[in-house]
Description:
Layout: E1 3-4, E2 22-26, H1 30-36, H2 41-62, E3 66-73, H3 81-101, E4 108-112, H4 120-133, E5 140-147, H5 149-166, H6 176-180, E6 193-197, E7 215-219, H7 228-240
Amino acid sequence: xxxxxxxxxxxxxxxxxxxxxxxxxxxxxxxxxxxxxxxxxxxxxxxxxxxxxxxxxxxxxxxxxxxxxxxxxxxxxxxxxxxxxxxxxxxxxxxxxxxxxxxxxxxxxxxxxxxxxxxxxxxxxxxxxxxxxxxxxxxxxxxxxxxxxxxxxxxxxxxxxxxxxxxxxxxxxxxxxxxxxxxxxxxxxxxxxxxxxxxxxxxxxxxxxxxxxxxxxxxxxxxxxxxxxxxxxxxxxxxxxxxxxxxx
Length: 248
């Protein structure tokens, strides 16, 4: 994957293009942002959370229907305990604010991943946000927490295998649609565009099944520095791509 520099092409604007229905964002670079400034990594996560709020609301305002952000992976538990504790505190603060903040934006909140590892109070806030927002008619915001693409597929395979064992599904019935219907994103369109700030060229176990035909835009900007104009640039780059889905 080539890094797409964040200069906004002048020949196109958002009004000239068809926007993707579903965007995924790997919110990467918080730690490096803090290190460059001589700050603790937790400061980078705090700055990144502010960027997340701003970009999520901007996506809603411009008409994106689905936004999936990678907030905390299954591998992130390997980080130092003080960093994880700071992240959990930040998640709790955000979820308390989200019940109020996204109400006026009609944003629907959903959480992707294995929730069993989270504390009861954090789990209760996740459930409250989903219940409070489920009847809204705006953008669906998926927050991937304790999420990993491989773990998601294992979870789906186990569910399907159990149905085969129960006799409710035959092995020959298993197809792509059935697998999709057992993922955390059931009922949602696959992402059209995945954006990775920070310049890293890897998928990092994010939406592995769903992103089979997604366009990737890798941007040379750390997530806390990511601005609306950077999203505009990624959307315009996406619009220039020729999506053939395996065809000619």
